[in-house]
Write a structure and sequence with these properties.
The chain is globular, with a radius of gyration of 18 Å. α1 packs across α5 and α5 runs parallel beside α6. The protein has two domains: 124 residues, Ribosomal Protein S5, domain 2 (2-Layer Sandwich); 149 residues, lpxc deacetylase, domain 2 (lpxc deacetylase, domain 1, 2-Layer Sandwich). Strands 11, 12, 13, 14, 15 and 19 form a six-stranded mixed beta sheet that branches. A five-stranded mixed beta sheet has the order 2-3-9-4-5, with helices on one face. β2 and β3 form a beta hairpin. The chain is an alpha+beta fold.
C-alpha cells in the first residue's frame, strides 16, 4: 500500500469477539468510524461514564509483555499493539474501538483477523490531510544489546533484526517499507514465547488467555503446537515488526523515516518513542 496523504477511517462498524491474551476474559470489540483529526480511541463501555483512552504515549501505564493504556488502576486496556499495528498497516487515522472488557481479543495471536474485518467493512478517505511526522534529524536509542535508530527517509520503513540463542530462531531480519503488502507480509505473523517463560508469566497473572491456538510456543527441540507449521521462515522477526508498528501508533500521527531495530520489544519501543518525542519537542 502506497502512502495515502489523506486521513482515513472505516466505512461502517465491524465487531470482533474473543478472549484477551493476558487476562483471558471474553471481550467484544466494536470498531466504529470516527471524524477527521480525532485519532484512535478505546472506550470502555462496560465501566461507568464510558471512559475514553486515547491511543497516545501519555496514556501508556505498563509495558510488560504488551502495551497497556490506562487512566488509573480501574480504567485500563491491555495488549493494544496488535490492533494498533493493523491500523498502522492499513493507514487508518481515525477510529473508535468500544470494548466491553479490559483487553481486545487476541484472535490467533497476529493482526490478521483485525485486518480482514477492517478491509471487509471498507477503508475510506476523509477530506483532511494526514499530519505526517517527517524525521529530519537522526535519533538513536540503545540499552544493553538493543538498538532502535531512526533516520530521515522519503517514506516509512522498518529494518528489524532479532537474535536468540535457539536453533529455531538464531538471527532473523525483515525489512518493511510503506508500499509493501502489510496484510500479506506482516499481519499473519503470530506472537511467540518460550516454554520456560510460561510459568513465570502465569505467576505474574499474565497469559491467562494464551493457548496453542493463539501463540507459538517454542521448546528446546521445536514447536509445541500440534500439526503446526510456521507461516513464514522468519515469522518471529515479522511479529516483532508487527509489534513495533503497533507501538509507533502511539505517536498519534503517521511517521516518515527509516527505523533500524535490533532486539526490540515493547519496553524498548516505548522508551524509544519517548526519546523521539523529547527530541521533537526540543527538550
Amino acid at each position: 500500500m502506497e502512502q495515502n496523504n489523506r486521513q482515513q477511517t472505516i466505512r461502517k462498524e465491524t465487531l470482533i469477539k474473543g478472549v484477551g491474551l493476558h487476562t483471558g476474559r471474553k471481550c467484544r470489540a466494536l470498531f466504529k468510524p470516527a471524524p477527521e483529526n480525532s485519532g484512535i480511541k478505546f472506550i470502555r463501555v462496560d465501566l461507568p461514564g464510558r471512559p475514553v483512552l486515547e491511543a497516545t504515549l501519555k496514556n501508556v501505564v505498563d509495558i510488560i509483555r504488551g502495551t497497556t493504556l490506562g487512566i488509573n488502576d480501574e480504567v485500563r486496556v491491555y495488549t493494544i499493539e496488535h490492533v494498533l499495528s493493523a491500523l498502522n498497516g492499513l493507514q487508518i487515522d481515525n477510529l473508535t474501538i468500544e470494548l466491553d472488557d479490559n483487553e481486545p481479543p487476541v484472535a490467533d495471536g497476529s493482526a490478521q483477523e483485525f485486518v480482514k474485518a477492517l478491509r471487509e467493512c471498507g477503508v475510506v478517505e476523509q477530506n483532511a490531510q494526514k499530519n505526517i511526522l517527517k524525521i529530519e534529524t537522526p535519533l538513536e536509542y540503545t540499552a544493553n544489546q538493543t538498538l532502535i535508530r531512526i533516520d530521515p527517509s522519503d517514506t516509512f520503513e522498518i529494518d528489524c533484526e532479532i537474535t536468540y540463542d535457539h536453533p529455531m530462531i538464531k538471527q532473523q531480519r525483515f525489512v518493511f517499507r510503506r508500499g509493501d503488502d502489510y496484510p500479506k507480509e506482516i499481519a499473519p505473523a503470530r506472537t511467540f514465547c518460550f516454554d520456560y517463560e510460561i510459568e513465570a508469566l502465569k505467576k505474574k497473572g499474565l497469559a491467562k488467555g494464551g493457548s496453542l491456538d493463539n501463540a507459538i510456543v517454542i521448546g528446546p527441540d521445536g514447536i509445541y503446537n500440534p500439526e503446526f507449521k510456521l507461516r513464514f521462515d522468519n515469522e518471529f522477526v515479522r511479529h516483532k515488526t508487527l509489534d513495533l508498528m503497533g507501538d509507533l501508533m502511539l505517536l498519534g500521527q503517521p511517521l516518515q523515516g527509516k527505523i533500524t531495530a535490533k532486539r526490540c520489544g515493547h519496553g524498548h519501543n516505548i522508551k524509544f518513542i519517548e526519546k523521539l518525542m523529547e527530541q521533537l519537542r526540543g527538550e
